[in-house]
Amino acid sequence: MIKRRPHLLWLLVPFVLYVGALPFANRVRPLVLGLPFLFAWLLAATLLTPVAVWLAYRGDQKRRAS
Q: What residue ranges in 1-66 does DSSP mark as E strands?
């Protein structure tokens, strides 16, 4: 299925950001804009999740159009 629809791999980005990289980001220091690193990481992951879903949707729409 992935060979026919590689754009769906964008949906793995939120999973990797939240679960896969969490053990590496689980620290308080350094501070990022005054926030603990883990909180800044989760905030960035939350903001990037809709972008990844939009990219998967856009790829699916291009596939349907062709």
A: 31-32, 35-36
| pTM for this prediction | 0.77
Within 10 angstroms of residue 49's Cβ, the number of other Cβ atoms is 16
**How many residues are given for the chain?**
66
The answer to whether residues 18 and 45 touch, using CB atoms and an 8 Å cutoff, is yes
CA–CA separation, 11 and 52 (whole Å): 6
Residue linked to tokens 């791999």:
9
What is the C-alpha to C-alpha distance for residues 9 and 2, in angstroms, rounded to an integer?
Answer: 8
Q: Band of the pLDDT at 24, cuts 50, 70, 90?
A: confident
For residue 62, pLDDT beyond 80: no
